[in-house]
């Protein structure tokens, strides 16, 4: 057993971010090696500006108050926690090219790679998840 968790983040809302970073930090805290491949709208989760203001689904605005009352960390805090725990962030090169984005558009500490980069990590993963 390798204790690896591979996550694909392809959606870009706040609920998606909480799922991705919650699982990633829990796995890393449980001594898993974790990599997240951010593609398409999932790139919003690590975009310098977009990650600061991820949208709630329409009709779910009341969750914002619930997150505050439950002392749930904000997404930028979760990004930092994940990075401190050693979670690898891989931004999809193809999607970045299609969207005209550069590495500097994203939080510090990411790597840029394609599907092959992620698959090299994921081929030995015990857990593979997609959000």
Q: Uncertain segments of ≥5 residues (pLDDT<50)?
A: none
Average pLDDT, to the nearest integer? Answer: 95
Structural class: alpha/beta
- Tell me the radius of gyration: 14 Å
Morphology call: globular
% residues in beta strands: 15-25%
Helical residue percent band: 25-40%
**Record field, number of beta strands:** 5
Largest sheet data: 5 strands, parallel
Distance linking N and C termini: 24 Å
Please give the CATH architecture.
3-Layer(aba) Sandwich
Any idea what the CATH superfamily is called? DsrEFH-like
- The largest sheet has its strands arranged as 4-3-2-1-5
Total count of domains: 1
The top-level CATH class is Alpha Beta
Q: Please report the number of helical segments.
A: 5
Protein described:
With about 130 residues, this protein is an alpha/beta fold. It has one domain (about 5-130): 3-Layer(aba) Sandwich (Hypothetical Protein Ychn, Chain: A). Helix content is about 35%, strand content about 20%. It is built from 5 helices and 5 strands. The chain has helices spanning about 15-30, 65-70, 75-85, 95-100, 115-120; strands spanning about 5-10, 35-40, 90, 110-115, 125-130. Strands 4-3-2-1-5 form a 5-stranded parallel β-sheet, sandwiched between helices.
